[in-house]
Structures are given as structure tokens and as C-alpha cells.
Amino acid sequence: MKHLKRLFKVLDEWKWQYLIAGFLIIISSVFRMLEPKILQITIDGVVVFFLNDGKSTIENPDYIANLFYNWLPEIRLDNLFIILGYIGLMMVLISGIRVITQFISGIITASATENAIQKLRNQLFRHIQRLPISWINEKSTGEIVQRSTGDIDTIRTFLGTQTVELILFSAVFIGSFSMMVSIHFLYALIAICLGPVNLLLAIYFFNKEGKIWEEHEAEQDELTKIAEENLSGIRVVQAFTREDFETKKFATQNQKKLKVALKHVNLHKNYWTIADFLINFQIAIAVFAGGYFVLNQQITIGEFASFFSYTLLVAWPMRQVGQIVSRMGMATVAVERIAEILDAKEEDYSGDIPTEKHLLGDIEFKNVFFKYHETDKNWALENVNFKITKGENIALMGKTGAGKSTIIALLTRLYEPNSGEIILDGKPLSTFEKSFLRRKIGVVHQQPFLFSTTIQNNMAFANETMTETEFAKAIAAAQVDGFMEKCKTVLKRWLAKKA
Predict the structure, then answer these.
(1) What is the pTM of this model?
(2) Domains, in order of start, for the chain
(3) What's the confidence (pLDDT) of residue 100?
């Protein structure tokens, strides 16, 4: 539940919108409670009055029914159609106010939810951009994408639908039960006698829901990871004719996800079967008890009709509590998965060396040890020592996995050595700001990545204020100036898919 509290903190900025929406829902529920009373006065005040040849059977109407009777003209056999017109008008007004307030509440809730989700998405994306590369490498791209999209949508559904429904169901339940008590206290208790059983069932269902959905999302992450890796490396897969192997791997993981999904479906099937039985059994008890009280003249036929309507209104939130609990369980899991990302510590860019300092280029590694994971048995770099003076051209030669790229990663402080020291211009590398180092040290990656934008924007990715002169120098350095001369507008062209 602590994660749900954290989720509701995201809503602080829009809490007044949610409060107004909740207030309107309560107003709508109040008018919903009046509709069965219209049925009651129609039966007791008009139908029974007509069948008894103008003899009224109403003795002590409850407070709400008495208010309606006071608003009506005197009931006589010669003006029953006028009375029905008044009753119809009251029904239209009450229903109209109920629908309008509920509609406005829905608009306010939807607007507040979409704004809150937009804020959460931006917050999550910004945080991911600032996480250490070591944390990013421990997660698959597919898993991060799934949490940033699927889990966010799960939260959006809960906030946009279930939060307001929870208020609506609570208001309807309390209002309906209060109306039932005003008619007949003992009958009201009998009509909700199975409510506690339904509540205990919902609590049990909630505990099961969270565990199964967490397992489901883990399998979904793995499936997304396999699909993402395969599509990213589809050329390699086809070049080595590994299509069948990759298809089998995907199908195996998809089968695992299916098993968990079926567990989730079976849980819902079992819950709804039991819940529906309890609700229908409760309604049957209410009908039997109501007939008994009518025959013993403890309530009127109109009161029985309105009471039955209230019984259905009480049964509705008691049944729907399962859906709210289900969505709450799924939202809780989604919040936990997103919180795992938001709780990850952002990369510390701080350093003591002024960022305006000019680098000379003297580099020294002293007894440097490094491994990517604490659990790794072998060192990626083991007791590395070397010195490079300013102006030297150095080539690091070695087989795959020898640590060449790791040395560059340590120089730009993408990782920190486990032990030993790296010296830059006579000062510990750890005293330089990371952003400063990454701006000053140029790196050509083994696998270049081009973004879906223009060639010019890709070239200026690290320097948005690049001048035309700097562009010309960059083009010449990349040895594509001849190509550029042939097509003057090429810099402004958008790259095609996959560059």
C-alpha cells in the first residue's frame, strides 16, 4: 500500500479536480437514491389508491416519501393523470441532474488523470536519462519499455476509472443502505447479511491478484526482451539461418506467459462465480423477507418495490468491488515496478575540477581493477598500469573481451574502477565532472547509432549551437564533404528507417 500512497502523491497537483469530481459523484449518487422513492410513491400513492377506489393505504410514510407527497397536488381519482405527470416530471429532473453531474465528473477526472499520467511519464523518462549506464545494462531494453508504457497504462486505467468508481460505489452503498434502514431496520440488515462474506472474498482475491499479476508482468518483460533482441538483430538471425531457433525460443516464452495468464483468468472466473452466487442468493433472501414483511403489513407494496431497487443498488457495488480490487492489485504491481526505476539512484555528475578547465591529455592508469558485476568471477581489467603523455598516438590491441572498450568507458566515467586510480593531467579522474569529461573526450563507437531526424541534427547531437563553420569542419573530418557538395540540401533531409 505504500506504493499506492506514492502514486497518489503524483496527483497532488490535481487533487482539487479529483475532489470536485468526487463531490459531483456524491451529488449524483444522492439523486440516484431518490429514484426508487418515485417508484414507491407511484405504487402507494397512485396505483394502490386507484385499485382501492380512492382509499389511501398510506399511514406513516418515511421522511423522503413524505417530502414527495407534499410536493404533489391532492391525490384524487379525478386527477390521477395529473399526478402521474407531476411524478414523471420529478423523475426526469432527478435523473437529469444525476446524469449531468456524473458526466461533468467524468470529464474532470479524465482531464486530471491524463495530466497526471503525462507528468509521471515525463518524470520517469527524465529519470531514466540520468541513471548510471551500469544500471541500464542490468535491465533489458524491452523490460524498461514495458514498464514505461504498459505499466503506465495500467496506472492510468486505475486512476481514470477505479478511483472515481470507488467513491461512486461507496456513496451508492451508504445511501442505499440508509434508505433501506429508513423503511425497515431489520429488513435492511437481512438484505445485506452476506455482505461481510463478499468483502472477505474480495480481500482474499486482492492478495492472490497481486502475486499472479506480478508473475505475469515478469513473463511479459521476458517476452518483450526476446522480441526486441530478435527484431534488433534480425539480419544476424537470417544470415545464420537461426529463424527456427528464434521462433522456438519466442514460442517457449510465450507458452510460459500463457500459463500465468490462464492462472489469472481462472482466478477471475472462480471469484466472479462465487461472488455472483452470493449476490443472487442475497437478493433471493431480500425478496423472501420482503414478501414476509408485506404480508404482515409491516411495509407497503410501494416500500417493498423501492426496497428491492435499493437491494439491487447495494448488490451492484458489492459485486463490482471485485473489479476495483483486481485493478487495484494490478496498479499496485505496476507502481512497484515503476518505483523500482524511480528509486534507482541517479548518476552523480559532480566533481571538484572547474568545468572551464582545458584538458592537456596526460593519462595514467595505476593498478586499476574493474569488473562489471560484483558477482563476476573474472576481472574485466586486472592490475592495469600504463601512462600516455600529451600528444602521443596510442593503439590498444587485443582480442574481443580484452578490455579495450572498458578502458574508454572508465576514462569517460561511465563506470568507476573497483580499485586503483586513474590520473588525468596529474589529478584523480574522480575529481572531474562527468559531463565535462564526456564533452571533452571524443569517442567513436563500434556500433554508431543514428536518430530519426535530419543528418544535421545527428551531427549536432552533442552541440545544439554548432555553427556553419563547425559543421563544415565536421563534414570534412568525416570525409563526406564531396558527397555533400553533390547535394546541398542533404543536411536537412530526414534519415530513412534505420538510417
Answers:
(1) 0.72
(2) 2-342 (1.20.1560.10), 363-440 (3.40.50.300), 455-492 (no CATH)
(3) 94
